[in-house]
Amino acid sequence: MQEAMISKAKQLLADGTVTRVIGWKKGEFAYDITPAIFESSEEIDRDFVYDDFTSTNVSKYLVKESKKEGKILAFLKPCDTYSLNQLTKEHRVDRDNIYVVGIPSDGKLDIEKIKAKGITGITGVERDGETLKISTVYGDETMSVADVMSNKCISCKSKKHVTYDELIGEDGEVITSDRFDMVEKLENMTSEERYNFWRGELSKCIRCNACRNVCPACTCENCVFNNPDSGVENKAAADSFEENMFHIIRAFHVAGRCTDCGECSRVCPQNIPLHLLNRKFIKDINSLYGEYQAGADTTTKAPLNDYTTEDCEASIVHERGVE
Amino acid sequence: MQVNDNKEFQPLIVAFCCNWCSYAGADLSGTNRLNYPTNVKIIRVPCSCRVNPMFILRAFQRGADGVILCGCHPGDCHYTSGNYFTRRRMTLLFSMLDFLGIERDRTRVEWVSAAEGAKFAATMNEFTEAVKKLGPNRRLEDLRCRKQ
Ligand code: SF4
Ligand code: SF4
Ligand code: SF4
Ligand code: FES
After folding, report:
1. pLDDT > 60? residue B2
2. Å between B90 CA and nearest CA of chain A
3. Which residues of chain A have pLDDT under 70?
4. N or C: which end of chain B has fewer CB within 10 A?
5. How many CA atoms lie within 13 A of A178 on its CB side?
6. With 90 as the cut, is the pLDDT of residue B142 above it?
7. What pLDDT is attached to residue B4?
8. How far is Cα A248 from Cα A244, in angstroms, rounded to an integer?
9. Is the CB of A252 less than 8 angstroms away from the CB of B93?
C-alpha cells in the first residue's frame, strides 16, 4: 500500500494536480508516527510512511491547509472521510482545494497495548494475516493482531469512503459493530453506580485538552475552554464539578456532529473512555430523532440544528426504567 | 439553603423563564396571589432557547438543588421555533446528566403560557417537593460555592 501511495503522490505532484501532500512520517521510533506535509518527491521518498501505526485522522489539518495557496493531496482512511464530509458540511474546509485519495484500512495497532505486554525496544512490526511479528532489539516476538488492535478500529463503523476523488484499492461497506454495547451496559446500571464509574474515570483527567485539539468536530476559532472569563481556561480541573463540566460541555458541543472517529479516546493520555460520552449522544439521537450518521453526507441538517413539531418531551428522560 | 428553626432541608430551585410566556405566567400567579415556594429563584431569559447547557451546569455549581426551564408551549414561541430547539437540547442534556449518574429528577422542562399562572404555581410546588425528597445536590456541586 505504501508503495502505491508514494507513486500516486509523486505522480500528482509531478503533473501539477496538487502542490502539497498530507500524510504521515516516522518519528523517533518505528511506531512513533506523526502527520506530515510533503512538498516534493524527495521528501516523500525519504519520509513518507503508511503502516500499522498511521492512525491519525489528518482531516482536521485540512481546515488550515485547504485555505492555503494550491491544492493539497490528502490520503484518507474510510473513517477520516466522514470527518472531512462533516467539515465540508460546516464550511470549515475548502473541499475544492483538496484532492482526496481514499485508502483502505484493515485496522491500526495500538502501541500502548503492545508495550503493556512487556515488549520494549521495538524496531518494527509486520502483519501476516492474524499474527503480528514484532522485531525488537532483544529478538522477535509474535502475537495475535486482534489483541493489540486499537480500540477505535475494533469498533469500526464503516469501511466505505463517503467522499473521494480517487481510490486506491476496493471500497468497502458500512459495517455493524458492537459500539453501543458499553453505553447500554452503563444505562442499565443504577445512577449511583454510573456516578461512581464516571467519577473514577473523569477524575483522572489532567485537562491537557488533547481530546479537543485532535477532534475534527472541535474546530471553533474561539473555543469556550479558551475563554478567560469562563474560569476554566486551559487549566486543570479544581474539583469534581469542573471535571464534569468540561466533559459534558465538550461532548455536548460535538453532539450530532461527532462522526465517532475515535480520535479523542485514542489520544487521551489518561485512557478516559470519552467515546462512551459521544456514543451516548449518538445513541440517543438515533433512538429519539431517527438514525443519523454525522459525516455520511454533506447536505442533511444536523439533529441539533433541526426539529420536528412531534419531537418527544424532555420528560422522556425521567420516564426511563433504571433509577 | 437552610431554614433556621426546624432545620428541614430547603432546596434552592433555579427557574429559567422565557420573557414572553413563562415569566408572564409567573407574574400572573403572583397577581392572583397563588402560593409558590420562596425557594424558587427566577432568571428571566429572552427565549427558552437562550439557555445554554452551561447555564444549567453553572446553576448547579453555584448551589442549586434543582433547575427547571420554562418556556412557551410548542408552537407558541415568540420567535416561532426557539422552544423546539430547546426541547431537543434539553432532552439530550438531561439524558447525559442522567448517564453521568446525576439524579434526573433535579432537572425539568415545563411549558407555561402567560395565561397559566395556576400551572406555574402548581409546577413550582411540585418540583420543589420532588427536589426536597432528593436532598441536597452533591453530585454536581462546587464545594467552593457551598454555603456554610
Ligand atoms: S485528552 Fe484525556 S486527560 Fe486530556 S483533557 Fe481530554 S479527557 Fe482530559
Ligand atoms: S468527539 Fe471524538 S469521536 Fe467524535 S469526532 Fe471528535 S475526536 Fe472523533
Ligand atoms: S469544545 Fe466546543 S467550543 Fe471548544 S472547539 Fe470543541 S466545539 Fe468548539
Ligand atoms: S419565547 Fe418563550 S420559548 Fe421562545
Report:
1. no
2. 6
3. 321-323
4. C
5. 5
6. no
7. 53
8. 6
9. yes
Cell of A223: 473555543
Q: What crossing angle do the helices spanning A274-289 and A240-253 adopt, rounded to 10°?
A: 50
Give the mean pLDDT of chain B. 92
Beta-carbon contacts of A309 under 8 Å, excluding residues fewer than 6 positions away, are B74, B75, B84
Residue B3 has pLDDT above 70, yes or no: no
Domains of chain B: residue spans and CATH = 13-133 (3.40.50)
Q: Are A268 and A274 in contact (CB under 8 A)?
A: yes
Question: Cβ separation of A318 and B103 shorter than 8 Å?
Answer: no
CA distance A281 to A258: 9
- Which grid cell sits at A141? 516476538
Q: Which residue has the cell 469498533?
A: A155
How is residue A224 written as a grid cell? 469556550
- Our answer on whether the CB atom of B21 is closer than 6 Å to any ligand 4 atom is yes
Per-residue confidence (pLDDT) for residue A321, from 0 to 100: 58
pLDDT, greater one: A237 or B64: B64
Predicted TM-score (pTM) of this structure = 0.93
Q: Is the CB of A80 under 6 A from ligand 2?
A: no
Give the contacts of B52 (CB within 8 A, at least 6 positions apart).
none
Chain A partners within 8 Å of B83 (Cβ): none
pLDDT attached to residue A184: 94
The three-state DSSP-derived secondary structure of B103-125 is CHHHEEEEECCCCCHHHHHHHHH
Q: Which three cell numbers stand for residue A34?
A: 506523526
Residue A46 CA: distances (Å) to CA of A37, A41, A219, B119: 13, 8, 31, 73
pLDDT in tens, B13-61: 999 999 999 999 999 999 999 999 999 999 999 999 999 999 999 999 9
Instruction: Pick the closest to residue B85 from B49, B47, B45, B46 (CA basis).
Output: B49
The single-letter code of the amino acid at B122 is: A
Indicate the length of chain B as a whole number.
148
Cβ neighbours of residue A156 closer than 8 Å, sequence gap 6 or more: A78, A79, A107, A175, A177
- If one counts every other C-beta atom within 10 angstroms of the C-beta of residue A48, the result is 21
Which residue from A209, A253, A257, A278 has its CB within 8 A of the most atoms of ligand 3, so it is best to mutate? A253
CB B142 within 8 A of CB B62: yes
Rounded CA separation A119/A113 (Å): 10
